[in-house]
Amino acid sequence: xxxxxxxxxxxxxxxxxxxxxxxxxxxxxSGQIPLDPTTGNLVDGDIRAQTRRVLDNVREVLSAAxxxxxxxxxxxxxxxxxxxxxxxxxxxxDYFSIxxxxxxxIQVAALPKGxxxxxxxxxxxxxx
Length: 128
What we know:
The chain is of the alpha+beta class and 128 residues long. The protein has helices spanning 47-64, 85-95; strands at 2-5, 20-23, 26-29, 72-79, 102-107, 117-124. It has a single domain (2-124), classed as CATH 3.30.1330.40.
């Protein structure tokens, strides 16, 4: 069984997918790009500004499911330029703490809407 999670405080899906799905004790978030949730446009600024917006969007979806960054067990980061790796790490460390989630970082040819960064996460749900 799976349940879709949706919030208006994060960008709406730009395709046939859910913002997140609860299933099997986990929350699977679709990749977030740096869209302003009110305008649907990419935020202005450098890779740091884009990464902050992405992680703020992730926070909103996590919150809609009743969890937070401390519940995240795995992240996947997609960058159009691995030269941005250090700057993304700097911002990432402001959102996550020890023990850090497992993580993959991959350079890709392109991302939706010309974004420079996309992040997806998996969070563990509390057992009730």
